[in-house]
Specification:
This protein has six helices and five strands; from the N terminus they run H-E-H-E-H-H-E-H-E-E-H. The protein is of the alpha/beta class. The chain is globular, with a radius of gyration of 14 Å.
Length: 128
């Protein structure tokens, strides 16, 4: 687990609803989340295997958004470390994006990143 992940999830959960959006095999992803202890901070978990689509497909996000009560794209931020699935997925879905890149990197042309952070605790400045 990334150092500081539990602490930032606990902090963010005070201000907003948190969801996991992940590609992969459902059984594996649910097990990982439960073992990490992060599941207690989440309102929901969405795994690509269950959705029948995966990030960065717009259909994956449509599946998720239809299952979040009162969903508002204007009040949504996807935080992820993958430009090709997390950030491009956010672009495809029309929501704001936050790229977590502890080592830096280049943003390819055509990919919109609203926020870039190098430490997880920098999320406090975005949502607190």
């Amino acid at each position: 687990m990334i150092p500081g992940a539990k602490e930032i999830c606990a902090y963010c959960a005070q201000f907003c609803d948190l969801y996991i959006v992940t590609n992969g095999v459902s059984r594996t992803q649910y097990s990982r989340l439960r073992d990490s202890g992060l599941d207690r901070f989440m309102k929901g978990i969405f795994v690509s295997e269950d959705a029948g689509y995966q990030k960065p497909m717009k259909e994956y996000f449509d599946y998720i958004f239809a299952r979040i009560p009162g969903f508002s794209p204007k009040k949504t931020l996807i935080v992820g470390d993958s430009l090709s699935s997390d950030i491009q997925g956010g672009n495809n879905a029309g929501i704001d994006t936050c790229w977590y890149c502890p080592k830096g990197g280049e943003i390819p042309a055509g990919v919109r990143v609203n926020y870039t952070i190098h430490r997880l605790d920098a999320l406090k400045d975005l949502i607190g």
